[in-house]
Structure formats: C-alpha cells, structure tokens
Amino acid sequence: MDTVVLLLALMTFSSTLAGGAVAIKLRRYLPYFFAFAAGSLIAVAFFDIFPEGLGIASSLGMPVRYLMIAIVASYLFYNFIERIFLVHHYHEGEIEEKGHIMGPIGASSLTIHSFLDGVAIGVAYQANPAIGIIVALAVIFHDFNDGINTVTVMFRNRHNVKRAATFLMMDAIAPIIGVLSTYAIAIPEAYLAVILAIFTGEFIYLGASSIMRETFQHTWWKMMIPTTSAALLIFVLTSII
Q1: Which of 56-65, 140-149, 200-209 has the highest mean pLDDT?
Q2: pLDDT tens-digit profile of 17-70?
Q3: CA separation (Å) from 136 to 5, 19, 32, 123, 225?
Q4: pLDDT digits over 150-198, tens only?
Q5: Predicted pLDDT at 95
Q6: Which of 118, 187, 117, 141 is CA-nearest to residue 16?
Q7: What is the C-alpha to C-alpha distance for residues 210 and 102, in angstroms, rounded to an integer?
Q8: By the 8 A CB rule, do 231 and 40 touch?
Q9: Which residues of 16-46 are buried (b: 16+ CB within 10 A; e: fewer)?
Q10: Torsion from C-alpha of 149, 43, 237, 122, nearest 10 degrees
C-alpha cells in the first residue's frame, strides 16, 4: 500500500477526533452545537450523499424512483424507531440515566458514512493519486464536522461523555478501515447507491426532525447563525471536490 494514502487516512482520523474533542470540551455551548449539527447533517444529505448516490444510479441506468423510495422509507423508519423506543421503552428518568437508543443508532450511521468516505479516498487514489489527494483533503475537512456531529448526536440523546467518546473513536477509525478495505473488497455500485439513499433519509431525519427540535427552546436568530453557517460550510466543501 502507498504510504501517502495511509498518511491521508491517518489525517482523517486526527480530524475526526479533533472535531469531537471540541464538542466535548465546549459542551456547555451544546445548543449551538445542536444548531450546527442540524444544519450540517441536512446539508450533507443534500449536497454530498444524495448527489453521489444519484450519480451512481444514473451511471447504472437505475430508476431514480428507487432511491426516492429508499429515502422516504429510511426517514419514516428512523422516525418510527425513535418514537417507539421513546414512548414504549423509556420513562424520562431512564432516558436521562441510560441514554436514548437513537444516540448509538445515529452515531453508528455517521461511522458507516465515515467508512464510505475512506472507501472513496482509497478508490479515488487507486484510480488517480492526484484525484485521491483532492478527495482526501475534502474528507479531512469534512471529518472535523463529522466528529462534532457524532458527539452532538450522543449528547442530544442523553448519553455521557464516555459513551460519546467511544463512538467518536469508532467514527475516527472508520475512514482508515474504509481505505484499507478498498485493497481487499469492492462494494457493488447498485448496493452503494441504495445505501447512500438510506443515509440521505436518516440524516434528513436526524438534522431536520430530531436535533433541530433542541434548538426551538432558544433564541431563533442565535440558532440560525450556526445552522446556516454549517450548511454553507458543507456547500463549500462539497463544491471544491
């Protein structure tokens, strides 16, 4: 394996940890992190994940309707999961003590997304080292935000610092595993398009329906600044790839 691509993978690891560390260290400003995470998750869904899945589907001649079905089904599924566990399995006190299951579910999905980011780096680098480096730099900047999102999703669902740090470490390691996997296995593009559509629906739900609710208790314009800034940041990062 080329040492350059391994170095790039290690840089994604450091970037993710740095973003998560900032969110943990400054958790007294959680409402602003909630607002930032909501904006970034929505923007990642529309500016990054869905266009990538759409591009793959188009190249394969796959009907776009299949992706739309996967997005809607994913959104409704995660809405159902959060409601069913919140209403039937937890009392408010237990949520405070144990944390809500949507925390690990959301953080795990972010981890899988980070794994696919690593796959993108590995595939792009093998195709053309110059393109691979460009993709890696975009992912490195993006992963700082992923680290923030992973910790924020856990805190939003009442999990403690230790649990948040555990998922942060998983998210940080995921791109490295993703890069390494490209030298061993290949994900069929048709499956990848559907997987990305499922992520789109989930991230829209997490950002617009789950995390965004936490910002409604605070001054609207103070929350809109980090939300809008996050969306603009993702737009810029996805535009330079």
Answers
A1: 56-65
A2: 999 999 999 988 888 998 998 998 899 889 988 998 899 999 999 999 999 999
A3: 9, 17, 28, 11, 28
A4: 999 999 888 889 999 999 999 999 999 999 998 887 778 888 889 889 8
A5: 42
A6: 141
A7: 9
A8: yes
A9: bbebbebbbeeeeebbbbbbbbbbbbbbbbb
A10: 70
Q: What is the rounded distance in angstroms from the CA atom of residue 21 to the CA atom of residue 151?
A: 9
Question: For 151-173, b where at least 16 C-beta lie within 10 A, e where not — what string?
Answer: bbbbbbbbbeeebbbebbbbbbb
Banded model confidence at residue 90, pLDDT cuts 50, 70, 90: very low
Distance CA 235, CA 229 (A): 10
pLDDT at 55: 92
Measured at the alpha carbon of residue 15, what is the angle toward residues 105 and 101, in degrees to the nearest 5? Answer: 10
Which residue's structure tokens are 């944390």? 99
Give how far the C-alpha of residue 41 lies from the chain's centroid of Cα atoms, to the nearest Å.
7
Please report, as a single letter, which amino acid is at residue 89. Answer: H
Torsion of CA 176, 156, 206, 118, to 10 degrees: 0
Q: Which amino acid is at 7?
A: L
Q: Which residue has the higher pLDDT, 241 or 51?
A: 51
